[in-house]
TrEMBL record:
NCBIfam families: PRK15469.1. The lineage of its organism: Bacteria, Pseudomonadati, Pseudomonadota, Gammaproteobacteria, Enterobacterales. Residues 108-280 form the D-isomer specific 2-hydroxyacid dehydrogenase NAD-binding domain. This is D-isomer specific 2-hydroxyacid dehydrogenase NAD-binding domain-containing protein. It comes from the Bacteria. Transmembrane segments: none annotated. Signal peptide: none annotated. Pfam families: 2-Hacid_dh_C. GO terms for molecular function: NAD binding; oxidoreductase activity. Keywords: NAD, Oxidoreductase.
Amino acid sequence: MNIIFFHPSFTFNVDKWLQGIQARLPEANVRQWVHGDDAPADYALVWLPPYEMLADRQDIKGIFSLGAGVDAVLKQELENPGMLPAGVPLIRLEDTGMARQMQEYAVAAVLYYFRRMDEYKQYQGQRVWKPMAPHHRKEFVIGVLGAGVLGRSVIEKLREFDFKVRCWSRRPKQIDQVESFYGEDQLSDFLSECKVLINILPDTPETQGILNFSLFSQLKSGSYIINMARGAQLVEQDLLVAIDAGFVTGATLDVFVKEPLSDLHPFWTHPRINITPHIAAITLPDEAMDVICENIRRIEKGEAPTGLVDIERGY
């Protein structure tokens, strides 16, 4: 069994991955792919792979994305058709420790707003001593856009704090004690009761720009936005307008259209916007390698892998 590996970053610890995969699959020949390498390969582990790495490998059994999202590699395929060999499974990381990180980030942001820490921060700057009652749970409805593996884990964790949670997805999902909405026809009804909106949608052509002024205007007045998915899903100028108009009180953003933010970006200094540098959930190597190697074993036994991507849907 031959496995090729590619990651473009010079700061990425390639040796840790090569050694880790080799230790988990001792029968395999694991190598870092370099330009000109056209030797046989059964599996490829990639992030932003060059066109020539995969394009002509018709006998490859599976391509593994080194992240939960596959939008980057699908964008490459769109720009360079044929980069992904036809019919070869594309497999993403579904959890690998990301679910818990997403839970932590979502809970931290929700409690920050629920306990009105954003307002106390403003008072601190004004030297105002003014205790306030927290928001009422019954009115502090949390809406989650996206009910896949990561979205469901966030919903379940928020329920542990007795918050009223509802979710929206493209297709029907059933989650205990959670109001579920799906499809474009039910989006407005979903938004109408949301005081907090958490975005964990996959990045597809349909979801790009979904966080826009029209959507913000359908939320409860003075709502909060938490974006942990992809920067392209937020129309940044629309958020600024929605805050000025009072539709949105505050936002916590982990992802952006262009990263890192430019020095002049208005989000840096906006008093109602909290930013973090794309750290809501990062790939944990050991957990990721465990899942990838288990999936390789599944494929070798003729079984379906977990995290199989529907390329037409984009996730």
